Amino acid sequence: MSRPQPIPAAALPPRAFRGAVRIRFGDCDPAGIVFFPAFFAMANGIVEDWFTEDLGIDFHALHGTRRIGTGFVHAEADFFRPGLMGDRIALTPILTRIGGGSYALTVHIHRGEEELARLSLVTATTDLDARRAVPIPADLRAALVAYQERCAHG
């Protein structure tokens, strides 16, 4: 298996959503380096922002009012460089697959042009009350497809 290589931020689709985050003291280990699970928490926060700010789907209403969950069912990461306390970073979600009841995305994490980490995530949509998988709601599917097309066509 060959190890993925970091890519510069400029190589990502120009119309992709980019969320800015500052690495905080609480995100780090005693050496001032991001404790690796903190990147997953940051990615989840960016996904919330992406839904509301870019996809036009109120993330909190989807979960709270509509009772549709979007939980990670698979997560993996490649780490290239350490993130340091005080760094300003950008997280960019790129859709890689839209299925019937799940979608996959890659979240690229950059400090300037330097890729620090790349998270591969699969998210399943669920009925939060019945605790079972459900198809991706039509409005969310349409927003995901539009985003994927916008990223693919510049």
Automatic annotation (TrEMBL):
Coiled coil: none annotated. One of its GO terms (molecular function) is hydrolase activity. Pfam families: 4HBT_2. Keywords: Hydrolase. PROSITE patterns: 4HBCOA_THIOESTERASE (PS01328). Belongs to the 4-hydroxybenzoyl-CoA thioesterase family. This is 4-hydroxybenzoyl-CoA thioesterase.
